[in-house]
Amino acid sequence: MTPAMDMTARIVRYGELQPCRTAFIDAHTPGSNQKENFTIIGGGVSESADQHVHISLPHGFNIGAAGQPPHCRNSLHSHRTAEVFFVLSGRWRFFWGRWGTAGEVILEPGDIINIPTGIFRGFENVGTDYGMIMAVLGGDDAGGGVIWAPQVIEDARDHGLVLGENGKLYDSKKGQTLPDGIAPMPVLSEEELKAFPEPSALEVLPRHVARYRDLSAMAAKTPVTVIGETGRLPDRPGFEVELVTRGSAQTTPVTEPRPSVLMPVFGHWRVVWEGGSTILAPGDTMSVPEDLPVTLEPSMSGEAGLYRIRGTQDPAGETWKG
């Protein structure tokens, strides 16, 4: 039996999230300098020592979030492992390519995107209010950091931030300099940049983007696998993402062989386990231990949708199929 008090440390409430405003190299760059980054489960890919990690237990994947006011953007970067986002609030434009011009898509609450690995990507809040997107990164170490487009590193240097080859940020506005023996992170050469594909929206959208309304219709009676080997967006990025709705809520106990994570996007959800229960609201994150039976159902009327993430034994490797 898992006592209720033990589960408290595995629940992160939306209102208790601790932001970092200096997480990445573009923290001073105009247009990107108002964003907030959150590391919820796992160490993530933050380049700042100021980043707070809410839950450090390994899950086989990382959970994070980005909060941004209107017109604020996250600069072009790439990852070595999977990066999946779903929109919690606001209206967001995701774009990709060397200069961010290869393709784009607009996503709204509940919509989800599995951004192909090895492609430069960025995102911008194009709504009228502060918005939040939730992120799942493959692997416990999230692939060893971020690969920035050359212009991002150059722009950051002009505004006082230098990224060392050790993956740490140094802020000249605070009098910081690179330590002895640490060189600046080198920018990618033109030859290296050729390895980053430039797929069009027509190539990316069918296999990598799913709309919440479509998914909720599919999950009307049973949960639907969104990302996974047999998912609506077929992939094996080291984890699976499943959507549960009011009609497919599981009122009999469900046990997972590995730690899983519950993330409501619509409605309030009651989670019950031996020894306790809790109510989750949109933006809350709950880590469920392996082999713990839990029941899951909406606690109020109205729209109800929840993403469940579970680790798999697949390596968190390349996801772009070409």
From TrEMBL:
Positions of the Cupin type-2 domain: 70-133
Regions annotated as coiled coil: none
InterPro entries associated with the record: Cupin_2 (IPR013096), RmlC-like_jellyroll (IPR014710), RmlC_Cupin_sf (IPR011051)
Gene3D superfamilies in the record: Jelly Rolls
Full protein name: Cupin domain-containing protein
Source species of the chain: Salipiger marinus
